Amino acid sequence: MAVSDYDAAAIKEKLKKAIDQHFPLERFFSPSDAILLKPNLLMPATPDQAVVTHPVLVQAVAGIFQDFGCPVSVGDSPGGFVDRKAMEDVYGQSGYFALRQAGVQLLNPDQSVEREGLPFCWWAAGGYKLVSLPKIKTHELMTLTLAVKNMYGCISGAQKSKLHVDYLRPIDFVEMLLKVYRLARPAFSICDGILAMEGPGPSLRGFPRHLGVVVLGDDALYVDLAISRLLGVSDARHILIRRAKELGLVQEDQLEMISEVPVPLVKDYKLPRQLGLDRIPAAVFEPLKALLKFYPVVTDRCTACGACIQVCPRKTITMKGKRALIHKERCIRCLCCAEMCRFGAIELEKNLLLKMASAAAKLIRGK
Ligand code: SF4
Ligand code: SF4
Predict the structure, then answer these.
(1) Ligand 1 lined by 299 (C-beta under 6 Å)
(2) What torsion do the CA atoms of 163, 166, 171, 176 make, to the nearest 10 degrees?
(3) Which domain holds residue 344?
(4) Which residues line ligand 2 (CB under 6 A)?
(5) In whole angstroms, what is the distance from residue 180 CA to residue 154 CA?
(6) Which of 186, 212, 253, 332 has most Cβ atoms within 10 angstroms of its Cβ?
(7) Are residue 194 and residue 58 in the same domain, yes or no?
C-alpha cells in the first residue's frame, strides 16, 4: 500500500479500506477479543530516527480495532534491562503517550511466563490477540528485521541478551525466532515502511530511508517474503526466509502480492555488511564457538552520556576521560550497549580468528 507520509486520518482511511477489501476483521477477530499491538520499540528514539514504529501508524491501527469494538493495548520489551520507569521513557520519547489519551493501554514487560523453555512477557503468553506492527529495518545479524523478527520483542527484556549469546550464529538464532513466532503468532502484521531504515540497522547507526509503503497481511512469514521482494533482497541474504523455505513454512509460488507500488520498490536499498558467521560450516563453528568472537567497540561519536554503563548486565563498561570504555574480558556480547546507545557510538569488531574464519569461508564458498 503506497502511503507517502504520517497523516493520521489518511493512514486510517487507507488501511481500513485495504483491511475491509482483503482481510475483513470479522474473519479474524471478534469484538470481545483483547488486542495487543506489538510495535518495534527497540529503544527510546524519536519517530524521525526510524528506529521505532511510528506512533501515528500505531494510533491508526488502534483506532480501527477500537471502532470494531475491541479493547486495545500496546506492548513491547525493548533492548536492555527495562524497568517501569525506563519503559515510560521509551513510550514517552517515541511519542506513544498520545495513545493513552486515545484509550489505549501501554503495558510493561515487567513479568515473564515460561513457554517451551522461552521466557515470554506476560502479555504474550495468552489472553491477547497479537498484531505485529514492525518497522521495516535492516539488521546487522539478520539482514532485515520485519514482521516475524518483531515478535522477538515478546521475549522478556532481561533474557533477550542471553538468548543472543546462546544463539550466536544467525542460522541458530533464526531457528529460535521461528519457535518464538510459532508460540506468539500474530493474527495480523502491518509493517511501517513509510520511513524505513537501511544500512547498519536496527539501531541509531542505521539511516532513515523514505519508502512510502505500508505492507499488511495475515501471515507474517509471507509478509516478510513480500517485503524481501519489494526491497530486492535475495534469499541468500535474508536468512529467515531461506530457512523458512527449507522447512516448508513459506513457498514462493504461494505468495499472493497485491501491490500499488512497483516490485522491486527500490533498486538501491542499502543492506548492512555481513558478519560472515553463517558462512562458517557448523563442523568448524561448534568446536571454535568460544573463540570466534565479535566485540562492541566505542567510537569517537561517544558523548559520555553513560547510558551503556547503566544497561550493561556484566558491569563491564567504565568511563575513561570523556569516552566509555568496554572491558572485553567480561563482555558476553549481548549488544545491549550498542542497541541502547542513542548516539550510534558503538560498533562491532570481529576478533582476528573470526576475521580469518570468515575470510576462509568466503574463499571456499566463493561468496
Ligand atoms: S557509548 Fe553511547 S551510550 Fe555509552 S557513554 Fe558513549 S554515547 Fe553514551
Ligand atoms: S559491554 Fe558487552 S556485556 Fe556489556 S552491554 Fe555491551 S555487549 Fe553486553
Answers:
(1) no
(2) -40
(3) 277-365
(4) 296, 312-314, 316-317, 326, 331-337
(5) 8
(6) 186
(7) yes
